[in-house]
Structures are given as structure tokens and as C-alpha cells.
Amino acid sequence: MSARIIDGKAIAAGLRAELKEKVEAFGKTGRTPGLAVVLVGNDPASAVYVRAKARQTVDAGMQSFEHRLPEVVSQDQLMRLVETLNDDFAVDGILVQLPLPPHIDATALLSAVDPAKDVDGFHPINAGRLATGDTRALSPCTPLGCIHLLKSVEPDLTGAHAVVLGRSNIVGKPLAQLLLGENCTVTIAHSRTRDIADLCRTADVVVAAAGQPEMVRGDWIKRGALVIDVGINRIARDGGYRLVGDVAFDEVCDRAGAITPVPGGVGPMTIAYLLQNTLKAARQRSG
Ligand code: GUN
User: Fold this and answer.
1) Which residues bind NADP(+) (predicted)?
2) Which of 49, 230, 271 to mutate to test the pocket of ligand 1 (most atoms within 8 A of CB)?
């Protein structure tokens, strides 16, 4: 049996088309949602993401504001920029692209973003709202995308045992909260978890967000399980470079019921949900 491939690229395109119509309807109230992106330094991967975000923001009918700052920018300068964006009426969403240079205190900076404009969902207020089931929460985009992809295959996840591999604040922890909200039984596994392969074999849903290339092997997966691969790892292979996920795709395909590819799975969903969060923030700010 070969797994159904979940086409994140097509699903994200559909979401963006729906969103564009909603943005147009919102525009009739006299305002266009605006997203500000802050990029520090010259990390090539971050520059690619930021360009894609800006293009898709404009394509969805929203305003894009880009702020590029040199690697040597100070904490104070960044804090002042965030305060300016917090006070700017036209800005509904603020995203500070990660990673930040090591001299910047990212926690302090992300906590300075107005929670009402925190479209990444990284502010402690939004993490708390997500954990308490408050529908005003702006939740992190990659986990929202993962849930959407799972529900595209299985609309009711009630009672499923979901194993999340990885405990980051950006993916693992918020994803566990969202899966709980879908009535799953959730286990978070991480680098110190014992017998991780045996644990995965008990899962109906496996979400891999561990940052370890091809860590999840075919014999870790129960037949028919749903597998979501959040990993994006650039590895040297066959004299060149290849992008691989945290899942050994070909092996897992033989056992899973459905699986996301890398690229073209979770990645496109993250930006689609960033745009959704920007519209949600704009609506909530409009009262
Ligand atoms: N860098 C990689 N992924 C993300 C993300 O989801 N948000 C931000 N702000 N930076 C990132």
C-alpha cells in the first residue's frame, strides 16, 4: 500500500484564494489589512521566506511593509522599531523573522510586540490564550497549517493518539495544544524520550518537527497512520544538495495512510496561515 500524498501546495493555494475574497469583503469596511515584516541581517534562507511572504501578502490584497536592518542593529533600535509598528494604525500584523543575531534578546523583542498584532503567535499572552482555549488567540502558523492538513484527510481527529516529535515553542508545544483542542490524546516526544520508535508505533498521527533529517523510519509507523513532516533539512547527497524532511519519505510511504511531502507539504501552509492570522488580527482590531 502506498500512502496518499497530502498536497500542501494545492491546499495552501485554495486557502489563499478564499482569503483574498475575505480580504476584499473586509476592505468594504474602509480598511486594508497590513502586515509588517522585520528582517535582520543577511541570512539567505530568511531573505527567501521574507520575499515570499511579501509577495503573497500583496497577492491576497493586503498591504506589505518590509523593514530590513543590518546584522549590527542594536536591541534598542529593534525595540524602538517594534514600538513604532505597535503604534502604527495601518499595521495589523507584525512578524520578526527568526533567527535573530546572537547579540539580540529574541524573547524580550517578541514579548514587546503588541499581542493584538502578534501574527506569529509567539507572545506569551497568545501562548496562554491558546493553552486556555481562548478563541481570540493568534496561534503559530506552522501548527495551524499542520492541523489543516490532517483535517483534510480526517476531519474528526477525536480520540486519535497523536505523537509530536519536537518540543519547540514555535511548533511542538503549540501543536500539542491544537491537537488537544481537536480531542486527540497527545504525547510530546523529544531528544530525551526513551524508546521513541516504540512510542511512534502506537500513534494514529505522527507529526515530525525534530530537525533531524529522515529520523522517522518506515518501521516506526503503524499501518494507516497519518504522518506530517515539518522538517526542512538541506543535506549533501549524490554530489549535490537535497531538501529532505524529518521523515524517511519512501519507507514511510509504504506504511502510512497519508503523508506530506518535503517540499510542498507543510511549508506553503505556514505562509497561508500567516495571511489568515493577519486578517484575523485586522478584524479583531476593528472590534
Ligand atoms: N523562521 C522560520 N520560521 C519562522 C516563523 O514561522 N516565524 C518567524 N517569525 N520566523 C521564522
Assistant:
1) 166-168, 232
2) 49
